[in-house]
Write a structure and sequence with these properties.
With about 190 residues, this protein is an alpha+beta fold. The chain is built from three helices and eleven strands; from the N terminus they run H-E-E-E-E-E-E-E-H-E-E-E-E-H.
């Protein structure tokens, strides 16, 4: 009886593991014959300095439906990945760790929409925290639609384009912008 219960538990665990799709969160997009595609690297606010080291983090966000901007998607459960530290061609790419596969809540055979978001770690432990911190620098990639194979290797981030971080505006700057827009509306109304 014990053996039957254990066998059923193992079977149920394996079935539930296969119910969730996987995406390869490898940071070296376009890595062919020792050359990395610079268009997939992540740059700081100046647009020329590639991110490097644990001062910057990257996280994969996913959704079962298409989204635009940074208003959609959920972060994968894995910890954010630090950027590589080398100042050579690997700068601008994150270190996904020993296993670059990330679980998304879309079953095999479905389509998942993914986005990479990056930020400076000193502004917050998550992208959301850094995006409201006046010292934050945040950025997000284009949204990719990936097909989860059934069965097969997890899809990579093919089609990922380079992106830059942007400085989070200070709250006083936002308030001044709103006041200016309000003044223009009042003037237009008169």
């Amino acid at each position: 009886m014990k053996k039957a219960i254990i066998a059923i538990a193992i079977w149920a665990a394996s079935v539930s593991a296969f119910a969730q799709g996987q995406v390869d969160f490898l940071g070296f997009i376009g890595y062919v014959d020792g050359n990395t595609a610079t268009e997939a690297a992540v740059y700081d606010v100046n647009g020329t300095t590639r991110l490097q080291g644990s001062a910057f983090l990257a996280q994969l966000y996913w959704s079962s439906t298409s989204f635009t901007g940074t208003g959609g998607g959920s972060a994968v459960s894995a910890s954010p990945a630090p950027f590589l530290t080398a100042a050579d061609a690997s700068a601008g790419f994150w270190d996904a760790g020993a296993s670059s596969s990330r679980t998304v809540g879309v079953p095999a055979g479905g389509t998942v929409f993914v986005q990479v978001r990056a930020w400076n770690a000193s502004a917050g432990a998550t992208w959301e925290a850094a995006s409201v911190n006046p010292t934050g620098r945040v950025g997000a990639s284009n949204v990719l639609a990936l097909s989860i194979p059934n069965p097969g290797a997890p899809p990579g981030l093919t089609g990922l384009q380079r992106f830059n971080l942007v400085a989070v505006p200070e709250p006083s700057t936002i308030a001044l912008g709103i006041l200016g827009a309000g003044a223009l509306l009042l003037r237009r109304r008169k």
